[in-house]
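Allow me, if you will, to draw on your knowledge of protein folds for a short while. I have a record of one protein: its chain in single-letter code and its fold written as discrete structure tokens. Could you please explain, in whatever detail you think fit, how the structure tokens follow from the sequence? The record follows directly beneath this note:
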Amino acid sequence: MTASPQAAKSRKEVVDGLLLLNKPPGMTSNRALQTVKRLLNAKKAGHTGSLDPAATGMLPLCFGEATKVCAYLLDADKTYRVTARLGTATDTADADGKEIATAPLPALSADDWNVIVQGFVGESMQVPPMYSALKKDGKRLYELARKGETVEREQRPITIHEISLLELAGSRLVFRVSCSKGTYVRTLVEDLARRAGTMAHTSRLHRESVAHFQAEEMLDLAAIESLAEDSQVTLRQKLLPPDVALTGFPAVSLDPSAAMRFRGGQAVAVSEKSGTGLVRVYGAGQLFLGVGELAGDSRLAPRRIFLTP
């Protein structure tokens, strides 16, 4: 018995690779993922590091075997272009929220503001906002916040690698920040304003980079839809191989015998002096095999095996 044309059309396919979406405003990260997944007709998909619906910018989408790199990209540093509106606080700390308080604008020059923002560079502790997806006693914080509840949140360590002040005009403050995973930019904006003696909220947020991926590598949703209209093959040609997300890891090559054992889940011995820690593992013909962990005794243990063809 053959499948109906409708069933054949709805059958999902194995699609492997990464796509760097320039997420449009007003769309949740999951909705963006499901839209592109449908255009690719992909079986399996995931994204790394949600952006707020109002935020725009880089959202790495992972398909098939590439979903195995999601965890590594979640841990990556990120860069944002941030526009803050000074003098006004909202309940969500962004432009989607309701105005809850105002304060006078401080009489500070660009140099004064630069001193303030540079004071946030380095390691610090940050209290996550109530409007976040973190859980407290099994419930999302934003669910509690929507009910008017406020609960105590534990501070979390973050690192601000760099902040550059880009513009100061009236109540508009624009800066670029490079930061570690787990950094809430909305909270950073509030903390910056508090130190300046006022209040603020994030009016625009655009993520420019994740890990080593840069802005010019992103595709707009409209461009993705246009490629899909041409053909799914055309769109799939834009996918990046999974190992490009792991170029920060050293590479180790295995001979055919060791490669077979590694793919079978066994630890193998390596002759090259590669130190310790996570590495990218390749077989013959630079076939990407997965992520391994080197121990001090030159043993390489599989951590994530990739079933690339």
Summary: Residues 1-8 have pLDDT under 50 and may be disordered. The domain at 12-75+213-243 is CATH 3.30.2350.10 (Pseudouridine synthase). The radius of gyration is 23 Å. The CA atoms of residues 268 and 300 lie 5 Å apart.
